[in-house]
Structure formats: C-alpha cells, structure tokens
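*** Residues and shapes ***
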Amino acid sequence: MEKGYVQVFYGDGRGKTSLAFGTAMRAVGRNLKVIIIQFMKKGKYGEIISAEKLGIKVEQYGFDRLIDLYHPDPELKKMIEKGIKRAEDIIKNTDYDLLILDEIFVAMGSKLISISDIKNIINLKKKHAVGMELILTGRGDENGNIPEDIISMADLVSKISMKKHYYNTGVIARKGIEF
C-alpha cells in the first residue's frame, strides 16, 4: 500500500461515523484490511451489523447505555484505556491497512483520555505504520471543537457542523437511519 494519511472528522454535526464507515466499506471493496475501534459505544447498531456482514472487524470499548459525558463512570475510563492500548498495538504491528478510531474525540471531550494520548497515536502511526490510513472521529468538546495541535498533525480535516437537526423538533433516533 502507498503512504497512508491521518484523517480527522469532527464537529457537532451528524455524519462523522457514517463517513468513517463509508470509507471502511470502500477500503474492503478494494481488498484492504480494516479494523474499527469504537469508543464510548457498545451494541449492535446498523453500521456494526453491516460491517460484520462485510468482514470488517469492529471492537467496542464502551457501554450499551447512555452515559453522562461530563461525569463518566470510572469503569468506562478503564475500557477507553484498553481501547487506546489496542490501537497502539495495531499501529505497532501494522496488521491493517485502515484503522478507524470512532468517537475518540468524544472520549477526549469527556476527559477519559488526554490530548497527549491522541497525539501519541498519530505520532506512532507516522513512525511505525507509514502505509496505514488512520481515521479519527468524534464531536470533540461541548462546542464540537478539537485542539489545533491535532488539526495541524492531520493530513485531512473535515469539520461537520450542524445547521439544522430534526432532533430539535422532538424527533427521536430512528432505527436504520441514526442507529
């Protein structure tokens, strides 16, 4: 594989995970080996079911229930730390062509991992896994932002911003559309 890049999808808008999973589908279609580490979530969401059908490995490090993002359970911190360690191991062993760290910026925004942890992952990728593509996603802080340090380290950055959302009119998440 040619040189891989670091892609970042963040912001308060909908579609960051969908964008990452779409890239995973494209990669598998071209016979690339893909793994997704999903932070903060656990469960059989539609994208997980589809990924499994396509042979995309997904590992989840989170709870299968809603959490208070700003006062998270200490047990969740341990899970997130295991996910970070797993990501580091994958990068060092370069077994995959594409590594997606979905919702890593939510974990950062919830103070479950540090900015240094994310910078370390990016630096490890650049040192040990030159051919691997790395995608990081998530809202970020309560305003949908991530640190400039991370933005400057990435090769591609897309901020997904919400202009209007039907949730604000009382529509709840719909099976097959939002999950």
In short: The chain has one domain: 6-169.
